[in-house]
């Protein structure tokens, strides 16, 4: 039996604008936003999705995300991976860097991926994982990271 994710709510900080999910990414991404001030030749973006979670799946999700990025971008480096949360509501964060080709040439990007198991008041045995990602140039990442943290702190299942 397939369980559809419940509605996910969060607060998007000022300066961020919701945008349509990129074509072909509708299966992976439920929400996308860009920063109103582009930095250099790349506009910082936040994406969010909610998926059915399974035991042990956070590391598998992180490994799959890393492999997908390595298949599509250049010089992908896993800089750091941290376990978050609690035993009952685990989470995982990873920081990656890579080069991507933009209209202005090759750009070095930083990507922060956070996978959080969220409590489900409708069915405590059915767990969902929120996957939130911030992508920005390595130069602008620290300027937009506080907004990403604020977005993460506001996540909740409705």
Give the topology, please.
Blueprint: E1 8-9, E2 16-19, E3 31-35, E4 45-52, H1 57-72, E5 74-85, E6 90-102, E7 105-118, E8 128-137, H2 141-154, E9 156-157
Antiparallel strand pairs: 1-9, 2-3, 3-4, 4-8, 5-6, 6-7, 7-8
* CATH fold-type name: Protein Transport Mog1p, Chain A
What is the CATH domain class?
Answer: Alpha Beta
> Helical stretch count?
2
Biggest pleated-sheet summary: 7 strands, antiparallel
Approximate shape: globular
Strand composition percent: 35-45%
Terminal Cα span: 22 Å
The computed structural class is alpha+beta
**Unreliable segments (pLDDT under 50, ≥5 consecutive)?**
none
Counted beta strands: 9
Give the fraction of residues assigned to helices: 10-25%
CATH superfamily: Mog1/PsbP, alpha/beta/alpha sandwich
Indicate the CATH architecture.
Answer: 3-Layer(aba) Sandwich
Total number of distinct structural domains: 1
**Average pLDDT over all residues:** 88
């Amino acid at each position: 039996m397939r369980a559809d994710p419940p509605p996910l709510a969060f607060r998007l900080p000022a300066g961020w604008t919701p945008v349509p999910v990129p074509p072909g990414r509708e299966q992976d991404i439920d929400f996308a936003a860009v920063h109103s001030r582009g930095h250099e030749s790349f506009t910082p973006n936040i994406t969010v999705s909610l998926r059915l979670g399974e035991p042990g799946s956070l590391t598998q999700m992180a490994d799959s995300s890393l492999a997908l990025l390595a298949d599509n971008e250049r010089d992908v480096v896993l800089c750091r991976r941290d376990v978050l949360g609690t035993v009952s509501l685990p989470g995982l964060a990873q920081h990656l860097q890579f080069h991507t080709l933009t209209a202005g040439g090759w750009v070095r990007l930083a990507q922060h991926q956070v996978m959080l198991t969220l409590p489900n008041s409708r069915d405590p045995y059915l767990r969902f994982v929120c996957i939130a990602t911030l992508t920005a140039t390595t130069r602008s990442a620290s300027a937009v990271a506080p907004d990403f943290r604020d977005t993460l702190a506001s996540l909740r299942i409705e």
